[in-house]
# Entry
Amino acid sequence: MLELTKNIQHDDLVERCRQGDQRSYGELYQKYSKAMYNTSLRIVNHTADAEDVLQESFVDAFAAIESFAYKSTFGAWLKRIVINKSINALRKRKMEIIDIDKTSAVHMPEEDGLDKEEQKYKVEEIKKAVKELPNGYRTVISLHLFEGYDQEEIAEILQISHATVRTQYMRAKQKLLSLIKQGGLS
# Structure
């Protein structure tokens, strides 16, 4: 029952924004800014770019708040805006994700399971290692591991083939394990 009350309060906050209540805009920003900044930072891996994405996302969300139709939570709607803007920021930096369908890359073996030694690494070590990955790898693995998108959704978001996403994910995972094992974290 507590969760239901929490959602009703959220809707009320969005409704007050729709009515032009300036304080409500600030409350929404305070409620979501840290999580949305972290989402963007995991994708763009650059604090200034993540700050820009955060601000642009809120400006767009507030400008379009009338079109928010409660088909999801406000947070999920805003997160989608943040992810799209983060990916666009990477594209502006000329992120390279090579489409496997358009190259003569060799066939990659299917994913092997992790052994117990590989499973012992802490989440923070993994997050630090993810920051060291090249843009394409980091984007795919962040969208999958941290944002919960499946490979088909990632392919759609990045406008690349599913095979490319699968390959980028497998290579990112291999590189990530290599970084962790080598202690190559900064």
